[in-house]
Design brief:
The chain is built from twelve helices and eight strands. The chain is an alpha/beta fold. The protein has one domain: 3-Layer(aba) Sandwich (Rossmann fold), CATH 3.40.50. Helix 3 crosses helix 4 and helix 7 packs antiparallel against helix 8.
């Protein structure tokens, strides 16, 4: 056997070894994900009901009684489970509904792209189809604030008050540090990759590590992971993220008139991968400019700081959210 034949034989062995290793990793990942899904199906059940909104179903969970109905709107990528510690206390005041947007949590996937108008249509159809007509008080976390403002713009007679919980602002993209936009675009690309790799367990591994570092209990983190690593949730999050980069697609002039409004702002900054100078500039922009501007969307708006809480106020300071909701509900009711 000549040198060329021996070299080729060695190369073939290396390639076969690499192929076997790849197949082993794929098989291990697929098994890891399959076991995880079986465990999720045994442990977690939707607390609400599935409401048909025309071709797909939205998971709607309503408790309490009375009017107005408080509607809880989660931020980008987050299921209705975000409101777990808020909803029971609000239910003592009035009717309260949390829900999963299409693709998220326990809801069916919806048509893509997940435009702001489609999300509003889904919400309104789920509420009315679920037997909860207006009027509403909208309580929105993070990027959910875009939807709340646009909903009120489209249906002004149906909304009596708003609570914005560390809500996003369209100026975050246009006035924030360029590194923030680059980081966000990179995150959207990663979301697309994770959607493809969801059957192999990579999202469960990566998202799981991040979620478990930021949530107060292992049981809560397990359910968040179960809901966030599904391919429809990743795809919906990526699609909504494209809208976020356009400033949330909020209509020009979408103010809140004289509605009761509380803007609840996180009292501390969460860790970030941005350079220190950019992170400090972003924090100043958020606290000193963007959040006060949101409070000025209504002539009756005011800003309240959730001391000691980061961005996930509904989980870290649920009592602050409940207090803001109680204030707005009381102000929205006739004397």
């Amino acid at each position: 056997m000549g040198r060329g034949e021996r070299a080729w034989k060695w190369v073939k062995r290396v390639l076969l070894g690499l192929l076997a290793l790849v197949l082993l990793v794929v098989l291990a990942g697929a098994s890891y994900e399959a076991l995880g899904r079986r465990s999720d199906a045994r442990r977690f059940r939707p607390p609400g009901r599935l409401v048909d909104v025309g071709g797909h179903r939205i998971h709607l969970h309503c408790t309490g009684s009375g009017s107005p109905t408080v509607v809880l709107e989660s931020g980008l990528g987050l299921p209705a489970l975000l409101w777990r510690d808020v909803q029971p206390d609000v239910a003592r005041l009035t009717t309260v509904c949390s829900y999963d947007r299409a693709g998220y949590g326990y809801s069916d996937p919806g048509p893509l792209p997940r435009t702001l108008d489609r999300r509003i249509d889904d919400l309104r159809a789920a509420l009315t189809g679920g037997g909860h007509p207006p009027p509403y008080v909208l309580v929105a976390h993070s990027a959910g604030g875009f939807l709340a403002r646009a909903f009120r713009h489209r249906f002004p007679g149906e909304v009596l008050g708003v609570v914005l919980v560390d809500s996003s602002h369209e100026g975050l993209i246009t006035r924030g540090p360029p590194a923030l936009v680059e980081e966000f675009r990179s995150g959207l690309g990663m979301a697309g990759l994770l959607t493809t790799l969801a059957p192999l367990g990579l999202p469960r591994l990566l998202i799981g590590m991040d979620v478990r570092e930021n949530l107060p209990s292992a049981a809560l983190a397990d359910e968040f992971v179960a809901l966030m690593v599904r391919a429809p949730a990743l795809e919906a999050s990526r699609s909504e993220g494209e809208s976020f980069l356009r400033g949330g697609d909020v209509p020009v002039g979408a103010t809140l008139g004289d509605l009761p409004l509380v803007v609840l702002t996180a009292g501390k900054a969460d860790p970030t991968d941005l350079p220190a100078a950019d992170a400090a500039a972003l924090r100043r922009l958020w606290v000193e400019e963007l959040q006060p501007e949101l409070a000025r969307l209504s002539t009756r708006g005011r800003q309240v700081t959730a001391e000691g809480s980061g961005h996930l106020i509904p989980l870290q300071q649920p009592a602050a959210v409940v207090g803001a909701v109680q204030e707005v509900v009381a102000a929205s009711r006739p004397p």
